[in-house]
Specification:
The chain is an alpha/beta fold. The protein is built from twelve helices and seven strands. A hairpin with a 2-residue loop joins strand 3 and strand 4. The chain is globular, with a radius of gyration of 18 Å. 40% of the residues are buried. The structure holds fe (ii) ion (FE2). Fe (ii) ion binds next to helix 5 and helix 8.
């Protein structure tokens, strides 16, 4: 679901190019594979109507992701490229951080090409093509979010010198994967980990259990996250413009230094300084 902090291998696996990309091999998908995409698509499209940020729904539309079957990355990249200059390429699995950041900095989104089986319809550990393409790609058609993703990749490359990967991974986690956005008086979903998950699409927005608090860059970078269950805290951005602006205007070097030595914040904690949108009941206990 996120860039691979644990991938230590430096060499791409056999069959992959030097930049870790592989052919999508679209012709290799079976009828069952395409049917699984269609099933997941229908369920999420219905769930997200009125819940996802309008730019996401627009992205589904302009990229014609509702077309039956798993999208062909070349065709998808042509449409996406014409809008924002991004393209989608296949990789064999998680890739090292520097490879991931370099692709983002070059406006290339790396996606898994396999699709989950029926037994994993609601939970899988490695991102599949549904998570990566349905979850991430629609917002890459939004010019501001597209710039944010590139800025994140550039920041990632710079962070390698600061030993600050964990902090930067938290920013990705709480925005690109699990972000909420203000929409008038209410909230909407935009994080790929949420919009590609049936259960979390509802939970993140409507359940009383998790905290929902205003986005604060330094606060996010100190906050631990859960990889094994729904989040206990979601951060709410005001707009993609403000997220992009903060990312571009912050000098991350001094910020990393300022955060050094400060304790991490627990996944369910609230601080006095938080702009609380919703104080979570934490009634839902995490998966053991
Ligand atoms: Fe993801």
């Amino acid at each position: 679901m996120i860039n691979a902090q644990d991938v230590r291998a430096l060499e791409p696996p056999a069959g992959a190019a030097a930049d870790w990309t592989i052919p999508q091999a679209w012709n290799g998908y079976t009828r069952e594979d395409h049917a699984m995409w269609d099933r997941l698509f229908a369920r999420q499209a219905a769930m997200l109507e009125g819940r996802a940020v309008p730019a996401f729904l627009r992205g589904l539309d302009v990229l014609r992701l509702s077309k039956p079957g798993i999208p062909d990355f070349e065709e998808l990249s042509e449409r996406l490229g014409a809008l924002t200059g991004w393209r989608v390429v296949a990789v064999p699995g998680l890739v090292p951080d520097d490879v991931f950041f370099r692709h983002l900095a070059n406006r290339t989104f790396v996606a898994g090409r396999f699709i989950r089986g029926p037994e994993q319809i609601d939970y899988l550990q490695e991102p599949d093509v549904f998570h990566d393409v349905f979850g991430h790609v629609p917002l890459l058609s939004d010019p501001v979010f597209a710039d944010y993703m590139q800025a994140y990749g550039q920041g990632g490359l710079r962070s390698l010198a600061f030993n600050a990967l964990e902090r930067l991974a938290r920013l990705y986690w709480y925005t690109v994967e699990f972000g909420l956005i203000r929409d008038g008086a209410g909230l909407k979903l935009y994080g790929a980990g949420i919009v590609s998950s049936f259960g979390e699409s509802h939970f993140a927005l409507e359940d009383a259990s998790p905290n929902r608090i205003g986005f604060d860059l330094a606060r996010v970078m100190r906050t631990r996250y859960r990889i094994d269950d729904f989040q206990e805290t979601y951060f709410v951005i005001d707009s993609f413009e403000s997220l992009l602006r903060q990312t571009l205007e912050t000098d991350f070097g001094p910020l990393y230094q300022a955060l050094d030595g400060l304790p991490d914040i627990a996944t369910d904690a609230l601080l006095e300084t938080d702009r609380v949108v919703h104080r979570g009941t934490h009634a839902r206990k995490a998966r053991p």
